[in-house]
């Protein structure tokens, strides 16, 4: 009897476990969308472009002799993302799935139109779109951007977007723009959202030959290559509508000031204080979050103190001035770097106060402690009353400066004697 009861119990357990597999799909039965492009269409509809990866290309399954295409690109007009995916399946043999999507690319035209939120709402209602998908704004149509993207060193499209965006995030020239953050900031109605800015169109008149390596937006970078696609800078969103762009340098500063982001180190150049015709290359290292102190005043301007601790590792001194062994020169360099960063920061802050009336640094988090309720905080109005009139002080504290493996550079006078 006990054995019979045990067998029935095991039978019921197996039945319960097996019910979880009723809707399973084999990998070979699915088409994996890596990038989704969205453009405006007629009659309040959207044109969706799906870049579908071929998982067998570049894998050990096909070997080195395969001539299959790495991806397939399909465009369809529809009201929303899910309907578009279902319609696209009329030409794609396998079931389209959005589970592995890396980026959503929207055209600048759509981003500035005010219709972006209508599309974005559909991404929150499906479990297929992950909250970590990155939002990219393209200068041209999203369909053109996706079709023009032709990387030569990485044939697998999912790996291309993964490596490209990860490296650009590490250097700070693009923001972290996942769709979860988009809704978090937009619905909070207090801060600006920064999306990745990119383009596949490069015109000669747009290229900037002068400027430091991060003072560009996509389309202005003086670089030649086979793939025309560039990622640099950010698209500024206020209340769900794109209002402007920030270059790579401004984007880096915005990332530095935002404690919700993980900023560690990035390579940059600074003016050589003792040889103005040269720049010094250095690695900016930030191991601790900046300290944000907001002193709210109801009847006078709020005071904000921002302290950014950082260190510098010098990578190259083209002027060959010996800063490493001369303490006086080293102090001049130290003050020059700190002052340079503070001037750029104040310029960006002034721009956000006067032109945008809001900030992309998420500083609204620090003023909320002064209010007992959400209605009280909303009535105070951070982005229209408090921040635009705030008195802001920025202090970049250079804690340590290093000079790499060698103390002194080659002496040109001795070399050319």
UniProtKB/TrEMBL annotation:
PROSITE patterns: PROKAR_LIPOPROTEIN (PS51257). One of its GO terms (biological process) is spore germination. It is a lipid-anchor. Residues 23-196 form the Spore germination protein N-terminal domain. It comes from the Bacteria. The keyword Signal applies. InterPro entries: GerAC_N, Spore_GerAC-like, Spore_GerAC-like_C, Spore_GerAC_C_sf. Residues 232-404 form the Spore germination GerAC-like C-terminal domain. Keywords: Germination, Lipoprotein, Membrane, Palmitate, Signal. GO terms for cellular component: membrane. It is found in: Membrane. Belongs to the GerABKC lipoprotein family. This is Ger(X)C family spore germination protein. It comes from Radiobacillus deserti.
């Amino acid at each position: 009897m006990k054995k019979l009861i045990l067998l029935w119990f095991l039978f019921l357990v197996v039945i319960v476990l097996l019910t979880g597999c009723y809707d399973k799909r084999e990998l070979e039965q699915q088409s994996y969308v890596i990038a989704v492009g969205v453009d405006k269409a007629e009659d309040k509809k959207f044109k969706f472009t799906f870049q579908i990866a071929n998982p067998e290309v570049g894998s050990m399954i096909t070997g080195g002799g395969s001539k299959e295409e790495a991806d397939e690109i399909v465009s369809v007009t529809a009201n929303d993302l899910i309907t578009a995916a279902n319609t696209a399946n009329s030409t794609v043999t396998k079931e389209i799935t959005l589970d592995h999507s890396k980026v959503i690319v929207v055209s600048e035209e759509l981003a500035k139109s005010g219709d972006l939120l209508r599309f974005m709402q559909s991404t929150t209602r499906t479990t297929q779109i992950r909250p970590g998908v990155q939002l990219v704004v393209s200068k041209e149509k999203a369909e053109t951007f996706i079709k023009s993207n032709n990387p030569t060193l990485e044939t697998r499209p999912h790996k291309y977007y993964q490596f490209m965006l990860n490296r650009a995030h590490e250097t700070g020239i693009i923001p972290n723009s996942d769709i979860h953050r988009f809704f978090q900031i937009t619905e909070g109605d207090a801060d600006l959202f920064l999306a990745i800015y990119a383009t596949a169109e490069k015109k000669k008149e747009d290229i900037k030959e002068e400027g430091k390596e991060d003072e560009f937006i996509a389309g202005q970078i003086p670089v030649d290559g086979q793939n025309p696609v560039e990622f640099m800078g950010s698209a500024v969103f206020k209340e769900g509508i794109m209002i402007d762009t920030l270059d790579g340098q401004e984007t880096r500063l915005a990332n530095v000031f935002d404690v919700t982001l993980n900023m560690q180190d990035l390579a940059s150049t600074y003016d050589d204080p003792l040889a103005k015709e040269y720049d010094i290359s250095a690695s900016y290292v930030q191991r601790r979050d900046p300290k944000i102190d907001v002193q709210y005043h109801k009847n006078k301007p709020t005071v904000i103190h921002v302290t950014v601790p950082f260190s510098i590792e010098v990578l190259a001194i083209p002027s060959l001035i010996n800063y490493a062994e001369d303490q006086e020169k080293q102090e001049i360099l130290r003050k020059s770097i700190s002052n340079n960063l503070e001037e750029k920061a104040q310029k960006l802050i002034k721009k956000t106060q006067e032109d945008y009336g809001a900030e992309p640094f998420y500083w609204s988090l620090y003023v909320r402690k002064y209010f007992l309720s959400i209605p009280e905080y909303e009535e105070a109005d951070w982005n229209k009353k408090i921040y635009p009139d705030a008195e802001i002080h920025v202090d970049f504290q250079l804690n340590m400066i290093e000079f790499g493996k060698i103390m002194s550079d080659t002496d040109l006078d001795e070399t050319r004697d």
